[in-house]
Amino acid sequence: MAWRQFAQSARDQGRRVGLVPTMGALHDGHLSLVRRARHNGDVVVLTSFVNPRQFSDPRDLAKYPHAPEADAALAAATGVDAFVTPTLREMWPDYPAPTLTTVSVTELGDRLEGETRPGHFDGVASVVAKLFTVTGPCRAYFGQKDYQQLVVVRRMVSDLAFDVEVVGCVTQRAVDGLALSSRNARLSAQGLTAATSLSRALHAARDSHVVASGRRTLMRDVMRSAGVDVAYADVVDVLTLQPLSDEDRGVGRALVAGVVEGVRLIDNEEIDLSVSGG
Ligand code: AMP
Questions:
Q1: What is the pLDDT of residue 278?
Q2: Does 30 participate in catalysis according to the annotation?
């Protein structure tokens, strides 16, 4: 894994390394992480690896978009210093047999996405741990788009004492509010319209002044009426991801997930419950 030496020589020259882990099919959401790393003056290492261990559904893995040439061009144009595409052999030599070593962030990884995608966050935490180990001390950039992933990674870094500063970056959206995602490429024009209901649901919840349970219902209603098959619509504690009660008045996070045209989509938004009633 040649980027181990690349990152070490950058540190030897007194530079900080900025790691941007992705699964490729790059879009402006990914590139916003690169821009943030460049803004911080980091030597940017962007990894592109479709990690099979974080897909619980093999059909989802088979359909995951790939665009290696376009990715390399976009990475170069955005000023990535090392565009790295680790091979399956390098990352998971035993695959498809299970690896003997797995990183599991229990509780945080079991809720929400973890409920319908068993083992998903074990796959995420294990691959991110390996990327961190190979890269060495660095800043690592993750999108708030995958909020639960960000919380899981932060917790893993803290529990396992990785020498990594995790930087959470704001979600990049299309003008209609839809969070940019590699999966959007699989949606028809009609599907894209339905998909905007996720961000509309979150905005409705953010702007309403009802208690947590009322905001959950509101989000479900907005998504359902757009024809989305709702997986969850929750308002949770920002760190523990436990559901907030109707008595809670602090800042929480609303997270939604739903299926449109067979494509699973997620989004989230900060929620201020301090002015809740009713
Ligand atoms: P992925 O390739 O989907 O695994 O995403 C790689 C990284 O890009 C993760 O840290 C994501 O949270 C982040 N990311 C994906 N979509 C967006 C977006 N719309 N805005 C900001 N970050 C994003």
A1: 64
A2: yes
Closest of 238, 256, 269 to residue 151, by C-alpha: 238
Containing 196, the helix (H) or strand (E) segment is helix 189-207
Q: What is the sign, positive or negative, of the torsion defined by CA atoms of 143, 21, 156, 89?
A: positive
We find that the CATH architecture of domain 2-169 is 3-Layer(aba) Sandwich (3.40)
What's the confidence (pLDDT) of residue 1? Answer: 80
In CATH, the architecture of 182-272 is: 2-Layer Sandwich (3.30)
Nearest CA to ligand 1 atom 6: 22
Test site for ligand 1: of 27, 145, 148, 255, most ligand atoms within 8 A of the Cβ: 145
Please name the residue whose Cα sits nearest to atom 17 of ligand 1.
29
pLDDT digit string, tens, across residues 232-246: 999 999 999 999 999
Which atom number of ligand 1 is nearest to the Cα of residue 144?
Answer: 12
Please report the atom of ligand 1 found closest to the CA of residue 25. 2
Residue-wise DSSP of 101-145: -----TTTTTSTHHHHSTTHHHHHHHHHHHHHHHH-SEEEEEEGG
pLDDT higher than 80, residue 277? no
Q: What is the pLDDT of residues 136-176, one digit of tens each?
A: 999 999 999 999 999 999 999 999 999 999 999 999 999 99
Asked if residue 29 has its Cβ within 6 Å of ligand 1, the reply is: yes
